[in-house]
Amino acid sequence: MTSSADTTGGRGVEFRVLQLLGFHGCPFVRAGLELPPGHPGREIVRDHKARFRARLRALALALPAADPASLAWQLATLADGAAACVLQGSGTPARAARTVALLALDAAERERD
Prior knowledge:
Order of helices and strands: HHHHH
Number of domains: 1
Number of helices: 5
Mean pLDDT: 79
Distance between the termini: 47 Å
Largest sheet: none
Strand content: under 5%
Number of strands: 0
Structural class: mainly alpha
């Protein structure tokens, strides 16, 4: 049930912002799924995702993470999953990904100790 002042249709402000921006998920994930095997565009997608993981790994190196590369893969997978779920029409996937990311960061810190 939504109030008469609710302009998001009960979906949350995150959804409305994404809708206004015209966001329909990660274009690299979408391209990677839609392009046929062997298409040169898939190499661009792989390169982009590798650079994203490298940035996450660099950030993880600054944390007390036992395995920064593994943590980078985990966080990249969460980001891709949340972006792919954006069409569900709510901020729930992003909030769930954030919760799991915090758990992964906590676990990475404990593994290092």
